Amino acid sequence: MKGSGKQRATGRVLRKSDGKPFACKLEICGPNSHGLDMDYIVMNQAAKRGCSHLVQSIDRGKIEDHFKFLIMPLLGHNLTKIRHQFVDGRLSLSSGLRLAFLALSPIQELHNIGYVHRDIKCSNFCLAPNSSRGDTRLILVDYGVSRAYKDKTGNLKAPREQVRFRGTTRYASLNAHNGEEQAPRDDLISWFYMMVELLSGM
């Protein structure tokens, strides 16, 4: 498994018919296991809108009372792994800024379809398949804590008075730490912290 937590894990699987590799995300069934459902909702909307910087699901299923799974395309390294290949985990100014600004396209796509990610960080941006030095595209992944900030008519939802913290403390905005409703601006604040990390190695 590439990554795992208390209830979720992501790994590499092979299609039996031809051996083609895919990514598979698993989530243990439970009363609070809704992350994979949100992943699929966002992926479905991304597919309908033709988003090229967001993951699109290939298949999904459920083993009753055990776990749910989601099959996705296999992507390249994430930005955390990439920066750790450099001395002190720090990219050059030109490379760091280039990757940071490339990360804005998937964030914009997610906001355009009406969702705020709420967990923007280096490990949630992966290289698209077949990316090269001259043609690099980043894919934003992991929509498990994402939330729609617009209703079905396209109007902004009223902010809730009490909000549980969602995200990663290292990258979270002050609004998130203060228990306030997150909006697109908070994703951009997290993006700024991510850019600082790419450039400073902190």
TrEMBL record:
GO molecular function: ATP binding; protein serine/threonine kinase activity
Source taxon at top rank: Eukaryota
Domain spans labelled Protein kinase: 1-202
PROSITE patterns for the chain: PROTEIN_KINASE_DOM, PROTEIN_KINASE_ST
Enzyme Commission designation: 2.7.11.1
Enzyme class: transferase
Matches recorded under InterPro entries: CK1_Ser-Thr_kinase (IPR050235), Kinase-like_dom_sf (IPR011009), Pkinase_fungal (IPR040976), Prot_kinase_dom (IPR000719), Ser/Thr_kinase_AS (IPR008271)
A Pfam family reported for this protein in Swiss-Prot or TrEMBL: Pkinase_fungal
Record-given protein name: non-specific serine/threonine protein kinase
Species in which this protein is naturally found: Heligmosomoides polygyrus (Parasitic roundworm)
